[in-house]
Amino acid sequence: VTGVVALDWGTSSLRAARLDADGRPLEEHHAPQGILQVPAGGFPAVFRETLARWSLPAGTLCLASGMVGSRQGWLEAPYCPCPAGLPDLARQVAWVPDVPGGLRLAIVPGLSTADGDVPDVMRGEEVQVFGALALLGRDAGLFVLPGTHSKWARVEAGRITGFATYMTGEVYGLLRRHSILARTLPAEDGPLDEAAFLRGVTDAARGPLLHTAFGARTLSLFDRLPADALPSYLSGLVIGEELNAQPLRDAGRVVVIGAAALTQRYRLALQARGVQADTLGDAATWRGLAAIARLLETSA
Amino acid sequence: VTGVVALDWGTSSLRAARLDADGRPLEEHHAPQGILQVPAGGFPAVFRETLARWSLPAGTLCLASGMVGSRQGWLEAPYCPCPAGLPDLARQVAWVPDVPGGLRLAIVPGLSTADGDVPDVMRGEEVQVFGALALLGRDAGLFVLPGTHSKWARVEAGRITGFATYMTGEVYGLLRRHSILARTLPAEDGPLDEAAFLRGVTDAARGPLLHTAFGARTLSLFDRLPADALPSYLSGLVIGEELNAQPLRDAGRVVVIGAAALTQRYRLALQARGVQADTLGDAATWRGLAAIARLLETSA
Fold first, then answer.
1. How far is it between the farthest Cα atoms of chain B?
2. Which of A260, A291, B77, B130 has its CA 20 to 30 A from that of A4?
3. Which residues of B touch A115 (CB under 8 A)?
């Protein structure tokens, strides 16, 4: 597969890459043009401007994942139900009609699952999981994609069998900026205070976050923790709460996929729980989209 | 004890009552003059204006509880450590000097406790617990005071032996108004949808709130729950999370103290967990302050 273009088009940003045959980026372009920033009907124009820099020949295959395939995106690519493997995603891509520049563009569907009668969804993270499997040469395991809404996914025999969303990053931001804790915490987070962070991970075992978060206030009130350490402590509480819900005992090595600053925190927190972690960044996205492109080209 | 005046002076409101000998209010006055609304040095003036309506004789005993005794209040009444009974509170009141109108004013201390090395605090709720004990003729049990920061207190042999704070009301408001859920929920809460609320209480068992709250979004996305039912569902999730952390199995009847709209929700949620509840409102505050006043007068 040469000349494939991959787009990771999320809520708040757009990242595009021209990939080599192994799914490695030859050139990349990042812009704050997430789907919330694109005006109604504006997707073709943003797409054309983004890719114009690469003078792509007509017929080039472009593959996009993320919220661009949601109801609020360019074209809805309905969720693919779990369990799902890479071939399931490839079979259910949504082909965009009338793509600018004579290019071909397919949007990868997200995944849906259900815990009892409550559904859960992801868009974009499924591609990263499959990319990580390829990069690590694995076909099973527990994967976490931390962020505003963290996703924990289970993979068996090359298929995602289920997953769950945790509003970890968002709740951290709400507590940190908008709750009573905002009066105690410093204006900026500053660098990670590893000891305070790990204390938070440990203290997350004391009870639900509803309770433990109040401890960030009282520890400060009683001068037990300096204000500068409170953001790291609160981050440890929130991430620790997320870890409490995972079957870590039987997980083996956990794979953490995301930006370095965040995967580092999860690696530390997992280590504190006796679990080793492999971390991956953007490479997982590009490799996953390249693998789907290969399936599309060979089945075409 | 005749002619005692009780003040419940919290963060956002001031409630004052002239009490009869049994701690029942003869006259009440409510104002949005919580300690956050009182300008620096303004406590004596607000106190004088509030009580002027009752033409109290000099020497009248006034007793105040709540955040008025915090570092940000009129006069700091240091926390009394648990376990603590009513006599401990009475012994440690802070007498305010130079009270306007020749009145006597004592501020009731809050309580502190520790779970391991993380402290917890309350101010005002301890008075309500002791008032409830008197009103119900009990000397032990599990008490909950729901609100922005819910307090769960254990009482044994007439003393509060420990308690814990849950940021339940505040986190509900943050999720409801400021998280991604705000896009899905209607602008106003509307009346309680009991079925949706109880479904939330049940679904709280699925995992931590970080996860279950995202279900409010997906249930709507998949048209499984109408938007109007989502605030009640989310309220059930948050209150259910609070209940998950309590030793309800051994609690017997739980006492819920607070405003009727909130105690009704807790009573419903507790019933769904097989626990019966007694509910009390303002009467607990007045009765608790009257009991402390009696101890002050008899020991004086």
1. 67
2. A260
3. 206-207
Q: Compute the CA torsion angle B102, B104, B107, B108 (nearest 10 deg).
A: -170
CB contacts, 8 Å: B164 with chain A: 207, 211
Average pLDDT, integer, range A24-49: 95
What integer best gives the mean pLDDT of chain A?
95
Q: Is A21 on the interface with B (CB under 8 A)?
A: no
Q: What is the helix (H) or strand (E) element at residue A169, kind and residue range? A: helix A168-178
Least confident of A1-10, B112-121, B219-228: A1-10
Beta bridge partners of B84: B160
Q: Which residue has the tokens 């068996």?
A: A156
What phi and psi values does residue B201 have, to the nearest 5 degrees?
-60, -40
Residue A1, pLDDT score: 42
Nearest CB partner across the interface for A120, out of B121, B218, B224:
B218
pTM of the model: 0.94
Indicate the angle between helix axes B260-272 and B230-244, nearest 10 degrees. 70
What is the distance of C-alpha B57 from the center of its chain? 31
Percent of chain A with pLDDT over 90: 94
pLDDT digits (tens, 9 = 90+) for B237-271: 999 999 999 999 888 899 999 999 999 999 999 99
Q: Please report where in the chains the tokens 């012994």 appear, as a residue.
A: B91
Question: How many angstroms away from the CA of B251 is the closest CA of chain A?
Answer: 18
In whole angstroms, what is the distance from residue B109 CA to residue B94 CA? 7
Within 8 A by CB and 6+ apart from A195, the residues are A229
Instruction: Give the residue among B54, B73, B97, B94 at the shortest CA–CA distance from B10.
Output: B73
Q: Are B175 and B241 in contact (CB under 8 A)?
A: no
Return the structure tokens found at B37: 């609304």
Contacts of B174 in chain A (CB under 8 A): 171, 174-175, 178-179
pLDDT score for B3: 82
> Is-contact A152 A246, C-beta < 8 A?
yes
Find the closest chain A residue to B120 by CA distance: A218
Q: Tokens 């003869």 correspond to what residue?
A: B26
Neighbours of A221 (CB within 10 A): 16
**DSSP of chain B:** --S-EEEEE-SS-EEEEEE-TTS-EEEEEEES--TTTSPTT-HHHHHHHHHHTT-PPTT-EEEEESGGGSTTSSS--PPEESSB-HHHHHHTPEEPSS-GGG-EEEE---EEEEETTEEEEESSHHHHHHHHHHHHT-S-EEEEE-STTEEEEEEETTEEEEEEEE-HHHHHHHHHHHSGGGGTS-SS--S--HHHHHHHHHHGGGS-HHHHHHHHHHHHHTTSS-GGGHHHHHHHHHHHHHHHTS-GGG--SEEEES-HHHHHHHHHHHHHTT--EEEE-THHHHHHHHHHHHHHHHH-
Element holding A85 (H helix, E strand): none
> Cα dihedral angle (B113, B114, B120, B121), rounded to 10 degrees?
20
- Out of B203, B213, B222, closest to residue A119 by CB: B222
pLDDT at A82 over 90: yes
Q: Tokens 């009346």 label which residue?
A: B191
pLDDT for A2 equals 56
**Contacts of A250 by beta carbon, 8 Å cutoff, 6+ apart:** none
For B185-221, the pLDDT digits (tens) are 999 999 999 999 999 999 999 999 999 999 999 999 9
Reference B6, options B129, B131, B166, B110; nearest CA is B131
